[in-house]
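Q: Hi! First time doing this. I have a protein sequence and I read that you can turn it into a structure. Is that right? Here it is:
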Amino acid sequence: MGRHRPLASGTGSVPVGPVPPPWDDEPTAPADGRAPGAERPAAVEASEAGSPGEDAAASRPTLLDQMGGPMGMVDSGLPVVVFVVVNVMAGLTAGIIAALAAGVVIAAARLVRHKPVTQAIGGLVAVGIAAFIAYRVGSARGYFLFGIWTYLLYGAALALSVIVRWPLIGLAWESLNGRGRAWRADRRLRYRYDAATLVWVAVFALRYVVQQWLYGADQVGWLAGARLAMGYPLFVIAALATVVIVGSASGVRVRDLLRRRRPAPTDPR
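A: Yes, that's right. Below is the predicted 3D structure, encoded as structure tokens:
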């Protein structure tokens, strides 16, 4: 009963202070109505924690994030626009220098924004190769030649992967989801990856045919317009088509790529 004070005789003690009620030591019933000491139902804990599919969808980057965001789209198109404009105004040499300068500025800006170093260097190298080819060809249209032949190589590699029954979209998709190569035993799923890979073959084939024709006609302005119009717009269409074709087999929906990610919950402890 609380604190005790010894008696003057030392033969005993008397209680001092409030006496705790006898029910203080009894267990308190939880607020959710469970019996004292009972474990929480697994369904309740799972619903509060969120399902694995919801967590994966919440952490998956949106389609805009995968393209580098608005600045990523500007970064990819700016050197082309700068090259064409300066080439028309001041000639090929000035256009090449301006494109290289724009590439350096963009690479530096990417590093300042804490983008991957490989992304910044890769973009700068691509601009440098395109500018070098334009210089060697001696024509502004040469600036687009590297990209044109890259489309052909990408399209051929994708088509070959379908022919040998190892569709590259399937390899990339399953690698990102950490499921290895077990998907190849599923014939229906493999056919889906074949179809998705052929979508990308069509994209690269269309880019190559149109821009190669414009290159042969020496239409530099139209080449620049085609490069921009057939860049991210076609990428978005092909990405959405890929999700529609194979996404249902792995729990990915189009809206998962379009909606903004939720911030990760913080531990209150």
